[in-house]
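G., before I forget:
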Amino acid sequence: MKKRSVRLFAALATATALAAPAAWADLVVPNFSYRTGPYAANGAPYADGFNDYFTLLNERDGGIGGQKIVVPECETSYNTEKGVECYESLKGQNPVVIAPVSTGIAYQLIPKVSADKIPMYTPGFGRTSAQDGRVFEWVFNAPTNYWDGASIAIKYLLDEHGGDLNGKTIALLYHNSAFGKEPIRTLQELSKKHGFKLTEIPVDPGSSQEQKSQWLQIRREKPDHVILYGWGVMNPAAIQEAANVRYPMEQMIGIWWSGAEVDVTAAGAAANGYKAMAFHGAGQNYPIYDDLKAHVFDKGLASQGGPHIGTVLYSRGMHSAMVTAEAIRKAQELAGTDAVTAAQVRDGFEALDISEERLAELGLTDFSPAIKTSCEDHGGSGMARVQQWDASAKAWNPITDFYEPDNEVIDPLIRADSEAFAKENNITLRCN
Amino acid sequence: MLYREAGDFKTSYRDDSQTFPLKLDRWGYYAALAVAFLVIPFVITDYWANSVLVPFLIYAIAALGLNILTGYAGQVSLGSGGFMAVGAYASYKLATAFPEISILIHVLLAGGITAVVGVLFGLPSLRIKGFYLAVATLAAQFFLVWLFNKVPWFYNYSASGQITVPERSFLGWIITGPQTSASAKYLVCLGFAVLLAWVARNLTRGTVGRTWMAIRDMDIAAEIIGVNPLTAKMTAFAVSSFFIGVAGALLFSVYLGAAEASETFGINKSFLVLFMVIIGGLGSIFGSFAGAAFLVLLPVFLKNVLVGSLGWPTDLAAHLELMIVGALIVFFLIVEPHGLAQLWRVTKEKLRLWPFPH
């Protein structure tokens, strides 16, 4: 009982003492990455985009307002327990914002960041009702969220069917986790409103590559459309199975987490015509890439050597970093100091106003819709568009403009959910 | 020389059969307890509590539970993850339904509910054993996780299927929820771990434990000498599930604060607890703690060394971590197939004679 554990403790104590960082003078923006495990193919490009944008700011502008941005990376493997471990170890470095790229970890950390007073940024994922700033003071999920995504998918399908989905059947094939379950309530409401029949088909995260029975069900029931809420290896498996049962790719539509190159390339030409949503552009046809090339790639500073530059998920990581950087800039402006604290960055997130002109200044012309947040609204416009995979050109082509979600349906749902959370946790509503 | 029993005379049977018959061991144990209860709570940080000590203590409780079933009673179980889920969801339902009752009582009640569920899924053990029983308990694992995903009543109809612990306090100290201090978390888990280890130790050396071991060693012979296999196996399942249920309830309410059946209590959790028992040592209380320490602390330790001190890329470190932990498991099992507990026992035997081996 004693000697061994004493020795182990001594060793552990030394290790943590060695690992404990000195006080940082710079702004710390941790990167909760996952480059191992079944979600690595999606996690790595995202983490690279996130890193590279901050490297660009550090190299080109010397950081934000003269403050260097330090991006310590922590491997979560998309596992909530590891994510909590990462959060606790990074908390000692006084991060100004937490961005876990996982809905499970986000749920875990929402109470913790609220208690520790560190803002959390979850663009396009996390808890949808965190959009309600009256309840979730420390959480931001602009520009869009899962319920917006569900609503936009239905809006697109309405357009496709001349505004009438009556009697149609839509299957939701989802990752059986907090992420995949999020849109169910919205889709149920929408099915009541528009008269379509909704079938919910879960795929267990532990065995998300095995979808034979799910696709057998789809083949038997022949739904008019399949909405895919998948992540990691579940996506290529779903698209491959769809091709195997000859389900028409044009009738499938994925959430933005099921619409990257890694998801469709495995199925080859069979994936041609698959559609997915997106809330930002992809590819290297943006002026920012000239700067990235000059200051980051050519100097050999690209994260992991830059194997994913310009891909959809790389662009998403970059988008997340860009919004975070703008929030820090805003915080510096509001606080009148460059060395901002986490609480001041929260104020920055709440006063975000990234207009189209500002995006153009950043070298991201027409990259994504404008973002504007307020005390009540931490979720932004919620807009997204639909893109389609061209297997021969190996490119995602936008086929619609940015849609607004059906706020008539979503807003009451969000209010109900966030107010229930407020009641459960004795939170008094802000912004009065 | 330093570790010896010379002059340590026993004058009563009671003294002779105590848990730590050697004075040195006993004092070491008291010292460890004193440090754990009186020193660590004052110096513990959030990081040490949440990343190291709290998960270690919780998994030690789970390993104790599985060790009772597998190590002492010889019934293989792959359902630990599912039983932990029962504990977690039971404590959640109880805590939200009866907020005026202390969460500590809910944790114990959750253990009781898990014991009932465990007995239910233990019934096949009366007919089947070995690999067949493993498969039956595997079914429990999948069924329970499916159940907690499928029936919204268990997660109070929340949109995402997540359960989130409400804030609860005990004697004015907040012990669940985000505002919990590191020492409160640690002390709650330590209290349960010490209490349950004490219970386990005393159960296993009494009549109940002896019937378990008789069943483990040879069930037919045990039956002939008058051990009732029904009560022996069912008590083993009940006590084991109680421990695992308490571990699951603590994992959810004190450690994580939010959980989801398929992610937190999947089949991986069952394997993790089983590995702890096997590496620590089957049929040993100390082994449960050693196994939990090995599998909880080593990855954190390696991560801190490889990423924190050496500054290696996180993905490389994560891969190396798997390789090193895997290699060490194989190494330890080759060197000492009976686990870390046996290694410790052998070391102690040698230390008694040292430095005069003959």
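Chain B is about 70% helix and 5% strand. The longest helix of chain B spans residues 229-256.

More on Monday.
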